[in-house]
Design brief:
Blueprint lengths: L7 H13 L14 E5 L9 H6 L18 H10 L4 E5 L17 H18 L4 E4 L9 H6 L1
Parallel strand pairs: 1-2, 2-3
């Protein structure tokens, strides 16, 4: 569901960030690297948004109830461990603040996007052997290019 919301511009920025944080190769080439390539953890800046976003008149479908729940980083790491995943690619949900489906739009959306992306990148930096970060933006907003550049 969330994958459809990612944009080409957001994907380019995410790919650049991911490339900068590429993990070292495992010592044993025969051991497969298990990666959850699509993980979302809402930052504190975003936690208040999912209920309004999911109930917005701009939405065309229902949200998965799990999408509205907080997932603390320790719970994410425990879930990765239970699934046998060595790495997770964490995608910022910052774009929710500027989503065209967010009706009415948030007046402080750009500030929320910045805070959410900062938190997601900091999370990956805190767990560099386990997590890599993708930032989130809405490429149609006036602040998109400056957020990518930042």
């Amino acid at each position: 569901m969330i994958r459809r919301l990612l944009t080409a511009a957001g994907g380019v920025a995410a790919a650049m960030l991911l490339a900068a944080q590429a993990p070292a190769r495992p010592n044993d080439a025969s051991t497969p690297v298990k990666v959850d390539y699509h993980v979302h953890v809402h930052s504190p800046a975003i936690l208040a948004i999912p209920p309004a976003y999911c109930n917005s008149p701009g939405r065309t479908g229902k949200c998965d109830p799990a999408f509205q729940q907080a997932l603390p980083p320790r719970d994410l790491l425990a879930a990765l461990d239970r699934a046998g995943m060595r790495r997770g690619l964490v995608m910022s949900t910052a774009y929710l603040a500027e989503s065209p489906m967010m009706v009415p739009p948030l007046s402080n959306a750009a500030d929320i996007v910045r805070a959410a992306n900062d938190w997601t990148v900091a999370l990956a930096r805190h767990y560099p052997r386990r997590l890599s970060a993708f930032i989130g933006i809405n490429p149609l907003t006036p602040t998109a290019l400056s957020e990518i550049a930042r």
